[in-house]
Amino acid sequence: MGLAAGFVLIFFATWADLESAYYGFDYTGSEPFSTLQCPIFMTKAETESFSVKVTNKAERRIINASLITNISTPALMEVANTLFSLEPGETKKLEWEIGPQHIDLGRFIFIRAWLHRAYPNPDKEGSCGVYVLSLPGKGAYYVWGLALCSLLGMGGSLFGLKDLFNAAPNGAFVRLMALALIVLAGLIATYLSFWMGGVLALVLAVLMSAISFGAQVNADLSR
After folding, report:
1. Rounded distance, CA 133 to CA 223, Å?
2. What is the mean pLDDT of residues 95-123?
3. 3-class DSSP state for residue 5?
4. Fewer CB within 10 A of the end CB, N or C, for the chain?
């Protein structure tokens, strides 16, 4: 159950981010915007927000720094240009609301943020996708529920079954531990909106599951 919960969370979060990467935003090839934070799940009636953190690394004040956001809608994208100022060394968090009016393709909200260069800060750009659930409540409840179920399920099972699997001659515990670590890496990639890491984790998890299943079948047949 722990592995399945983690797999479900990684799959849908990675799907949304992957769709966002190919949605049609005008990418400029800028430095990745690592501080862009978006919800992983939302429900259809929910209003949430996404945010970015920007830091002034210069020794002078930055006036009228520009950050452009693109948000999906069922028709034309919603575009906004936010101007702000930063004192030397200051970090500022900027937030924008998203809701049902931004759902596109029936189940996604897509977001892109582009920070214009303000010396010595380079251009920064990032995108993310939100998967919209047709369920009641808040999307965050499902994210945390799946994450906790995954971590507690995998951790508890590995701890409880350690002696049993170590006694098995076919290395079942090692394979199960490797699978759990792959899912954990996928959860971290999901939190960071690193969809390539999520895709890699999904592929490795499927391969490791097939290897484990095949090894277990061979072990059963050899008895």
Report:
1. 46
2. 89
3. helix
4. C
Token output for 165:
């699997």
- Of the candidate CATH numbers 1.10.10.2840, 3.90.1170.30, 2.60.40.10, 1.20.1440.230, the domain formed by 16-135 belongs to 2.60.40.10
Closest CA to 128 of 19, 45, 223: 19
- Cα 184 to Cα 180: distance, rounded to the nearest angstrom: 6
Q: In this predicted model, what pLDDT tens digit does every residue of 163-180 receive, in sequence order?
A: 666 655 556 777 888 888
Q: What angle do CA 97, 98, 99 make, to 5 degrees?
A: 130
Q: Determine how β-strand 108-115 pairs with β-strand 62-71.
A: antiparallel
Domain boundaries, the chain: 2-11+140-218, 16-135
Q: 183, 171, 195, 184: which is closest to 20 by C-alpha? A: 195
**Whole-model pTM?**
0.85
